[in-house]
Write a structure and sequence with these properties.
410 residues, alpha+beta, Immunoglobulin-like, five-stranded mixed beta sheet, four-stranded mixed beta sheet
């Protein structure tokens, strides 16, 4: 065979081998890519289901401590089936919302599948399947919504009975039933978080409401928050929900410590905290300017209706005891100077008037731990010590008589 012909055959074989190699590489990349896509899809969380006919959107929201964000939506008109694929490396809380139905919260992570089927049950219109963690939350939400449904039924009976001759008796019976359902649900919520402290569902429960009533008081029920926080931090310390809840618990703890410190600092017998605040004549004034006589520090606001109702009580106390050296330092937490000064004139409020016109942002408001629960008073003895403080002004007259009857303290 001529040399030139052999070279041509050899070159053709090389080209064929190259083409086969390229084809194999292309196929391998395609197969690997398809596998990657399949693997990526398989590792996502799936939330799927079907609802009864509604020509409306269903929304999927990601729930965090400070935000509820829509991440996907589906129109239910076409077959009423939906499927959401979400990516979450860790357990996360999502909420399905539809304007005709109760919101449904679920807990998922990559690889989980939650299936939701709507039913005709008016109290709880869902059948749900999911992970054990997810079903803990769903089971609690079912109990909550069934109890809400019972309360709504009582409200309906109440409205229908308003013309009944025995309405007062019926109202009392309904009120007793409401209290019983409420108390039983509070007990159930406490049993739930005690049994499942390491579940994200317990974060939802401990921060939840029964109608408009909080189920747990952050200070009085703080032990429940601590138990949940400890269990969750041990189980999944890097989870976003757990980190946020841990910060919430730290903030509650700090607030409790501040409350305790404020209670001790402002207790009777302690020296009144010193401060200065602009008076209505432009000069700075504070309790230190009134030592030697009995002083009533009166916290109020011209914009607060209850304060305006109490102003005549302050005037009466001033008129009765001023001849004994009694004075009033009336501190307003208003922001509008004209409203504040007009109220002083209109109500004939006596004493020395002061305000920094910062409203709830006034440092004095925080110094006395008032939380803008107005009006309030602190009664100060001639030595500058707190004799009494309260928000109940019915006790003021009694305290005034008592402070003037006490023996001199030298």
């Amino acid at each position: 065979m001529p040399m030139k012909h052999r070279d041509m055959i050899k070159q053709s074989d090389m080209n064929n081998n190259t083409n086969r190699i390229l084809l194999a590489l292309i196929l391998s990349v395609f197969i690997l890519g398809a596998c990657d896509q399949k693997s990526e899809k398989d590792t996502r969380a799936v939330i799927e289901g079907d609802y009864l006919p509604f020509d409306e959107y269903i929304f999927l929201n990601r729930v965090t401590a400070n935000n509820v964000k829509i991440v996907d939506s589906a129109m239910l008109a076409d077959g009423q089936k939906f499927q959401f694929n979400v990516r979450s490396e860790e357990e996360a809380i999502f909420r399905l919302s539809h304007k005709e139905l109760f919101p449904l919260m679920v807990i998922v992570k990559n690889g989980d599948t939650v299936r939701v089927k709507q039913t005709n049950d008016k109290a709880w219109p869902y059948k749900v399947s999911g992970s054990e963690e997810c079903m803990l939350l769903v089971d609690y939400l079912e109990r909550l919504n069934r109890d809400h449904y019972n309360i709504d039924s009582l409200a309906e009976i109440f409205h229908q009975s308003q013309g009944h001759p025995e309405f007062m008796r019926i109202r009392e019976e309904l009120n007793d039933q409401f209290i019983q359902i409420h108390e039983e649900h509070k007990e159930y919520a406490r049993e739930f978080v005690t049994a499942h402290p390491s579940s994200l569902a317990s974060i939802v429960v401990v921060n939840g409401f029964f109608k408009e009533f909080a189920l747990f008081h952050q200070h009085d029920d703080f032990n429940y928050y601590e138990v949940i926080d400890e269990a969750l931090m041990e189980r999944m310390p890097t989870n976003k929900h757990v980190v946020d809840f841990h910060l919430q618990v730290d903030n509650i703890r700090a607030a409790k410590e501040y409350e305790f410190e404020a209670k001790m600092r402002l207790s009777p017998g302690r020296l009144v905290p010193e401060f200065e605040i602009p008076a209505n004549d432009g000069k700075m004034v504070g309790p230190q300017n009134f030592k030697g006589g009995v002083l009533l520090i009166y916290f109020w606001s011209a914009a607060d209706a209850k304060s305006r109702q109490i102003n005549p009580v302050i005037k009466a106390a001033y008129d009765q005891f001023n001849k004994y050296g009694f004075n009033v330092l009336a501190i307003s937490f208003d922001k509008d100077a004209s409203i504040w000064k007009n109220a002083i004139k209109l109500d004939e409020l006596p004493g020395v008037h002061a305000s920094d016109l910062k409203g709830a942002g006034s440092p004095v408001q925080k110094l006395f731990n008032l939380k803008m629960q107005l009006p309030a008073y602190f009664l100060i003895d001639p030595k500058g010590r707190i004799f009494d403080h309260d928000k109940d002004f019915s006790k003021l007259q009694e305290s005034m008589i008592e402070i003037y009857q006490q023996k001199p303290d030298y």
